[in-house]
Specification:
alpha/beta; Immunoglobulin-like; Rossmann fold; 2 domains; seven-stranded mixed β-sheet
């Protein structure tokens, strides 16, 4: 049986998380308060002087956990990620309320939210430029018994995919996006968040159905605040519906850990 996720503590610009049987310490610039107690982490990651991972207990190549009922396969990657952003789960109740038949998930990573939607019976188009991430998401689908679920797996540059979908007349009832600050597409295309956001949101508007019920925009880029996302969504979708924004967070034993921002438009 896979074990669950828990934020054990945060402070001194780091976070300590329990991922199944393993305790992992990683940097967190937002955690400026004092760390309440000491932890003996099985693995620690540092971005200083290219230190990378250090291990008190050797981690396996992969292991499985459960987050809010979703099973996930984790791996310690060279850039300090393990394959899940737990803060995204704070948006799942919103998706349960607003997601209808057909949802497009862009920059979809290893697919925790895709799994959540598929378990609700939603048809999902899962797009990421990295084939390795798509393969990882397919592993998660198998873990959750969703091999035959209506998930369309697309390895492509998001901007080019959106243009092609509009030309094909493909439409969606909702869109999720979690763009990186900087990224490269499947064929080396460069994506820069600040430069490409207006074009990205305009392309999303082009593939929304007449009955589209939401756009959920999450972001981890420093300097992009909830008000920034709210204003962007008002520009692109504010002629109808409601726009709201806030902070993503992870709930710990004693404190909330800010972990990015969200903006959402919905009917």
């Amino acid at each position: 049986m896979s074990m669950s996720y828990q934020l054990l503590g945060s402070g001194d610009q780091k976070k300590i998380e329990q991922f199944g049987p393993y305790t992992i310490e990683r940097p967190c610039s937002a955690a400026l308060w004092k760390l309440g107690k000491a932890f003996k982490a099985d693995a620690s990651f540092s971005r200083e002087e290219k230190k990378g991972w250090s291990f008190r207990k050797k981690l396996p190549d992969s292991w499985d956990i459960e987050l809010k009922g979703i099973k996930l396969r984790l791996k310690a990657t060279s850039f300090g990620h393990v394959g899940v952003f737990p803060e995204h789960a704070t948006q799942w109740p919103f998706l349960k309320k607003h997601a209808k038949k057909r949802v497009l998930s862009l920059f979809a990573y290893s697919g925790a939210t895709t799994m959540y939607l598929a378990k609700q019976g939603i048809e999902v188009c899962h797009v990421d430029a990295a084939k390795g991430m798509i393969d990882w998401a397919k592993e998660n689908a198998a873990l959750n018994g969703l091999e035959d679920a209506p998930i369309r797996w697309i390895v492509d540059d998001v901007m080019k995919f959106l243009v092609r979908e509009a030309k094909r007349g493909s439409i969606y009832d909702g869109v999720i996006l979690d763009p990186p600050t900087f990224g490269r597409g499947a064929k080396g295309q460069v994506f820069k968040l600040e430069k490409d956001l207006h074009k990205l949101l305009g392309s999303i508007r082009n593939i929304l159905s007449k009955k589209a019920s939401f756009v959920l925009f999450t972001c981890h880029t420093p300097g992009i605040t909830p008000i920034t996302l709210e204003n962007l969504l008002l520009d692109s979708f504010g002629d109808k519906g409601t726009v709201e924004s806030g902070e993503l967070y992870i709930e710990g034993e004693d404190k909330l850990l800010p972990s990015g921002t969200y903006g959402r438009w919905f009917l």
